[in-house]
Amino acid sequence: MSRTITEAPTALSSPTFGPVRHGDSLVRLRPPRLSDFDRWREIRLRDRAWIEPHWGTSPLSWEQRHTPRIWARECLVAWADMRAGRRFVGVIEVDGRFAGQVEYTIIDAEAATAEASAWIDAGAAGRGLIGRALLLLCDHMFRVHRVARVLAPVSIDNDPALRCLRGLGFRHEATMARAYDAGGARKDHTLWALTPADLAAAQLSPLVPADPADVPGVEPRTSTPTYPPSTAPGAGSANSGVPRAVVALAALRWSVWSVREKLRHYRPAAPVALTVRASPNTVVRTLTRTDRAQWTQVGRTRATATSSFPRSGQERLGTGEGSSAGQDRSKSRAQWYRTVWHSRFGLRSPSGLRLVLDVNGTYAGEFHLYDSPLPCQATGLYTWVDPLRVEPELWAVALRSVIEHAVAELGVQRMAAEVPVGDTVTAAVLAAAGFAHEGLLTAHRGPSGLCVDHDLWGLT
User: Which residues form the N-acetyltransferase domain (predicted)?
Assistant: First the structure.
């Protein structure tokens, strides 16, 4: 959708945004620096009661989560992600002082969708500063990166954040049950969305650039992104806040962790074979090499339960090649081998777990479990059947078998399914299997590859 999105390593690493004037203060965003450590730690420890209830749960104590090594790792990961075009991680500066952070993550480059999050010094809260920082970056993402939708998940009890989003024009789209493990427990979170049209309709006061004479010490903007010497990856100095040895150790541990994470995706998983109750000739099983002929035939002829939602793009999650891969699936031998290869590694594989609904030895449908790109700690579910071979009642029973396996054997705590509005058959099957309707995702590109309104269904 956007050349800028897919080639964003340069643009997302731009050094600063702003400064802009907000009341009597100047606000700007810039990448984090190692020298920010002392101020970052001071605020985070002081404002623990303000931040921790809405922050991800960790086995570490709050103090252990705010050491020089943790900050060095955070900076290293942020720099790498910005160079790769995956995220912008910015420090919120108010009048030249570190006051918080804001982050935009590209969660779906093809759909041009980003996720926003932010926190700010409690002493600076209530003045609209965090809203100004979010607006500054939203404006940039919409105009420069052509982002179509920005999503923001917020805990249902985080009233200041909810007021901020409403004030910026975000629309509430869903309430996701037990979506995040935050503050020591899984909590319900609301999902909010902002589009360029929403931002225009909000009629917010314009971003007014600060007078250069009022901005001491701000690095000049350049067309070629650069890092100040103190923020270059691996840099350290006596006044950096983080010793060189700590930075080196953090870089080494991060590198080892990255390699281990990649290898984790390729650990062989045990084959799945689930007997569907009340239908002895029906099983849900792992995709195998012998399925190639039927897999190819399904790619050519399958009709969904609702024919207005064609197959185009349904293999996007499984192959990473976009909607065109789904259209050409029956002709792509390489695609078949990649799909069956990934099936050896189960839910941990890059494309997730693909299970076949086998009815009397016939490939009659699929259940696809994958890491959901939505801003929630959930396993995504995409499912379809051949309506000529599978009745909705049998489909729902088979789905319940998949859910039981996912919870008991795979440790899944939450599942989320996105269904195009109007696909009443799939929606009814999800409801019969125990899913609850959580909201409406407007103009959302779901796992089918279609950019239409989708109902969000969740199960915990």
Answer: 27-197
Q: What Å distances lie between residue 186 and 114, 148, 256, CA to CA?
A: 23, 29, 29
Distance CA 401, CA 407 (A): 10
pLDDT score for 313: 36
Neighbouring CB atoms inside 10 A of 229's CB total 9
Q: Which amino acid is present at 204?
A: L
Q: Which token pair is 351?
A: 């494309």
Q: How far apart are CA 421 and CA 353, in angstroms?
A: 25
Q: Which of 75, 86, 76, 74 is nearest to 9 (CA)?
A: 86
- Encoded amino acid at 351, one letter: S
pLDDT digits (tens, 9 = 90+) for 23-44: 889 999 999 999 999 999 999 9
159-168 vs 129-143: helix axis angle to the nearest 10? Answer: 50
Is residue 220 very low, low, confident or very high in pLDDT (cuts 50, 70, 90)?
Answer: very low
> What is the identity of the amino acid at 39?
R
Q: For 244, list phi and psi in degrees, rounded to 5.
A: -55, -40
Rounded CA-CA distance 275/284 in Å is: 7
8 Å CB contact between 393 and 386: no
Q: Which of 216, 331, 371, 346 is nearest to 285 (CA)?
A: 346
For tokens 């959580």, name the residue. 438
pLDDT tens digits for 97-142? 999 999 999 888 888 999 999 999 999 999 999 999 999 989 888 9
Domains of the chain: residue spans and CATH = 3-263 (3.40.630.30), 273-459 (3.40.630.30)
- Which are the contacts of 242, defined by CB distance < 8 A and separation ≥ 6? 34, 37, 68, 71, 72, 236
Residue 374 C-beta-side C-alpha neighbours within 13 Å = 37
Q: How much is the average pLDDT of 326-345?
A: 73
* Angstrom distance (rounded) from CA 352 to CA 233: 33
Confidence band (pLDDT; 50, 70, 90) for 14? low
Q: What are the φ and ψ backbone dihedral angles of 73, each rounded to 5 degrees? A: -65, -40
